[in-house]
Design goal:
This protein is 38% helix and 12% strand. The chain has an 11-stranded mixed beta sheet, with helices on both faces. It is globular, with a radius of gyration of 21 Å. It folds into 2 domains: 392 residues, Amidase signature (AS) enzymes (Alpha-Beta Complex); 78 residues, no CATH class. It is of the alpha/beta class and 502 residues long. β2, α4 and β3 form a beta-alpha-beta unit. It binds glutamine. Glutamine binds next to loops. Glutamine (GLN) binds next to loops.
Length: 502
């Protein structure tokens, strides 16, 4: 029969419901694919084989008993390792939490399980989600399935690579400044950062609480829409006061195309220094495709967008410093042995528990929040945030979605970007969306003409219009596919079909 990596999430759920195959068979095929592929990709920090088989058998038992199955019945999923799932560790890829066992399950994880998904395990990431390459993981790097000598992007690099290598059908990541969209782009998969508040953050280890948002990866827009339906089912989560009810069916208008919709382009973003010409050409191509499909393309401006990275690297570290203060060597995580005072224990546990980037962010945050400094940086950063948010509101008065690159370039080699401030520019196209709180999605365009590596376009939409965003993304996906573009919605060729026979 088929290989599990050829099946969409909807096809798996339908196949399980119809009895074409059992959820247990799908789970075993996925575990087999991980076994055959992950030695090289290293997307996972922990494979939860027992949880996967238990969940799959429970799904099969429900079917046997004639009970209704969830919309993600039997769909194999992976979770970024900053999401709690009872029965697994939650390490945030940090020495600090190396032996930490989840004591509860995050709402986002639970909602996928409630929809019938099969939990394959926990995916690698940059330590505490600080980074754009997954190189800051304490445990090991993750390799880009399209070229093992290159990074998968980050910080949700494991989640993106697991889907690109066909080890998982769908995965969840978190995006504080681009950590879903940028690795999705580098790995040639679809990645959605929903509007802030659309998905509960309860049980997701916080980085920047006003910026963090959970979202799905999939090889196809439809898979991402299906996962979104599960994530918002149940509405507002009483455990996350910022979560909102967004009772929409993300599949409902997915196939309706872009006729009558307006797509905005921002000239200053397409002319930006640092944008690789092959990415620019591909995004220009996407613009023509959307136009060809009936969208009206309009020029819009985001005049304050150049301030987004600076504002982010003030607000993000301040919030991270506050959030990560809880790792004090007393209550959670790594505890330095042999200390004689609490102060010493706390200081040394933090010194030896956190890696370099996590320390850099916290030191920056501590400095920026000091009295006297605060007024110089934090206050102006918040003012910039307001201006950028207003820019978006104005722009979305004239269009339904904005088209731009997801990342300025394709996947880079390990160690190629060693200057942290250069690394920070990886998110030059994604950060403004977190600053303003609206949604953004990365859609694969195929392989770049020069690099032969995945290139993507990003679409950003107004707050709580993520359904329109998915619809435009689907229209683009269809056009890219119709153009005969290779590598659309596909598993990286080196891994396709390895293990995973169903
Ligand atoms: N790369 C950005 C950073 O390092 C964004 C990370 C994220 O979205 N979690 O902060």
């Amino acid at each position: 029969m088929a290989n599990v990596d050829e099946l969409s999430a909807a096809r798996i759920a339908a196949g399980v419901a119809a009895g074409d195959f059992s959820a247990e068979e799908v789970a075993k095929a996925s575990l087999d694919a991980i076994e055959a592929r992950d030695g090289e990709v290293q997307a996972f920090l922990e494979v939860s084989a027992e949880l996967a088989l238990d969940a799959a058998r429970a799904t099969d038992a429900r079917r046997a008993a004639g009970e209704p199955l969830g919309p993600m019945a039997g769909v194999p999923v992976a979770f970024k390792d900053n999401m709690h799932l009872v029965g697994t560790h939650t390490t945030c890829a940090s020495r600090m939490l190396e032996s930490y066992e989840s004591t509860y399950t995050a709402t986002c994880v639970q909602r996928l399980l409630d929809a019938g998904a099969t939990p394959l395990g926990k995916a690698n990431m940059d330590e505490f989600a600080f980074g754009s390459s997954t190189e800051t993981s304490h445990f090991h790097p993750t390799h880009n399935p399209w070229d093992l000598e290159r990074v998968p992007g980050g910080s949700s690099g494991g989640s993106a690579a697991a889907v690109a290598a066909g080890e998982a059908c769908v995965s969840l990541g978190s995006d504080t400044g681009g950590s879903i969209r940028q690795p999705a782009s580098l790995c040639g998969v679809v990645g959605l950062k929903p509007t802030y508040g659309a998905v509960s953050r309860y049980g997701v280890v916080a980085f920047g609480s006003s910026l963090d948002q959970v979202g799905p990866f999939g090889r196809r827009v439809e898979d991402v829409a299906l996962a979104m339906n599960a994530l918002v089912a149940g509405g507002h989560d009483p455990y996350d006061s910022t979560s909102q009810d967004c009772p929409v069916d993300f599949l409902e208008h997915l196939e309706e195309g872009v006729e009558g919709l307006r797509v905005g382009v921002v000239p200053r973003l397409m002319d930006a220094a640092g944008l690789d010409p092959e990415v620019r050409d591909a995004v220009e191509g996407a613009r023509r495709m959307l136009e060809g499909a009936g969208a009206e393309v309009v020029e819009v401006d985001l005049p304050h967008i150049d301030a987004a990275i600076s504002a982010y690297y003030v607000i993000g570290p301040c919030e991270a410093f506050s959030n990560l203060a809880r790792f004090d060597g007393v209550r959670y995580g790594y505890q330095e042995p042999g200390c004689s005072t609490l102060a010493e224990q706390s200081a040394l546990s933090r010194a030896h528990g956190f890696g370099a980037e996590a320390k850099r962010r916290q030191m920056l945050g501590a400095y920026l929040l000091a009295s006297g400094v605060y007024d110089e940086y934090y206050v102006p950063a918040q003012k910039a945030r307001t201006l950028i948010t207003q820019d978006y509101v104005r722009a979305f008065g004239r269009c339904d979605a904005i088209l731009m690159p997801s990342a300025p370039r394709t996947a880079f080699r390990f160690g190629e970007i060693s200057d942290p401030t250069q690394m920070y520019l990886s998110d030059m196209y994604t950060i403004s969306c977190n600053i303003a709180g609206n949604g953004g999605i990365s859609v694969p365009l195929g392989l770049g003409a020069a690099s032969g590596l995945p290139v993507s376009a990003q679409l950003q939409g107004p707050a709580f219009k993520d359904r329109v965003l998915l619809r435009v993304a689907r229209a683009l996906e269809r056009e890219v596919e119709a153009a005969g573009t290779k590598a659309m919605g596909a598993v990286a060729p080196e891994f396709a079909g390895r293990g995973g026979e169903l």
